[in-house]
Design brief:
The chain is mainly beta and 237 residues long. The protein has one helix and 17 strands. The strands form three sheets. Strands 2, 4, 5, 8, 9, 13, 14, 16 and 17 form a nine-stranded mixed β-sheet that branches. Strands 1-3-7-6 form a four-stranded antiparallel β-sheet, with no helix packed on it. Strands 10, 11, 12 and 15 form a four-stranded antiparallel β-sheet that branches.
């Protein structure tokens, strides 16, 4: 009997660990042109891994809402279309500037006594205007910002800023995953800045996370902690 209980507990923790290594990711070109359609894909997976089929997404994560904030600071909801293992969306930028795409979704179900929140963002630079190149346009509880005015290159220090409750935040855990499979874990400093030096060309997956003790009720169930993550894809040339 004790052995069966132990096996059940081990299986639960293995399942939970695997489950919450997943995150939402927004895939789109980081540059665009005014008047030209910009396509977007939203997936749920581990970094650089095969997307999970929508039918297998945790809880109600597939019921997320996708938002677009333009350089004029106007925020609009984007329609999404479901496929087998991802959602698609699109928008057509009307003017030059920086566009911010965001998702923030708190899962309906708890993981044990923990509430899980999935955040994702993408930054699209259109033309040479830097209007909208502002981390304040991402109002998610936790977010990662990369400056659209900077070109990120191999063997050059790459700085990201992590925000929590819209303020630069210290000691956010940041996981960096390169397209080659090279991974690195860093933390934000007192100014919310985390830095690494990329050594391969390609798209890097950035995931910041924070866990904290907090008590409350969520969908009729009590929770004692909250886990939040934020993802961003950046291009290194």
């Amino acid at each position: 009997m004790k052995r069966n209980i132990l096996l059940i507990v081990i299986a639960f923790f293995l399942h939970t660990s695997s489950l919450f290594a997943h995150a939402l990711w927004i895939e789109t070109n980081t540059t665009g042109k005014a008047g030209q359609k910009q396509t977007i894909k939203i997936i749920y997976s581990e970094p650089n891994d095969k997307p999970e089929k929508i039918a297998d997404w945790y809880s109600d994560v597939k019921e997320f809402t996708l938002w677009l904030t333009g350089p004029d600071k106007q925020k609009v909801k984007l329609a999404t279309t479901a496929a087998d293992d991802h959602f698609t969306s699109e928008f057509t930028p009307e003017k030059d500037g920086v566009y911010t795409i965001t998702v923030s979704h708190t899962a309906k179900e708890l993981g044990g006594k923990t509430k899980y929140q999935f955040n994702a963002s993408a930054i699209v630079a259109v033309g040479k205007s830097l209007a909208g190149n502002d981390p304040a346009l991402n109002t998610n509880d936790i977010s990662v910002f990369s400056d659209a005015s900077k070109a990120y290159k191999v063997n050059k220090p790459f700085q990201l800023t992590g925000f929590f409750k819209e303020k630069p935040s210290e000691k956010l855990h940041v996981a960096v995953h390169s397209p080659s499979g090279w991974n690195k874990e860093i933390s934000t400093n007192a100014q919310g800045v985390a830095e690494f030096t990329p050594i391969w060309v390609g798209k890097y997956s950035i995931e910041a996370s924070k866990s904290e003790k907090e008590e409350g009720e969520h969908n009729g169930k009590n929770y004692t902690s909250v886990w939040r993550c934020a993802t961003l894809l950046v291009d290194v040339k």
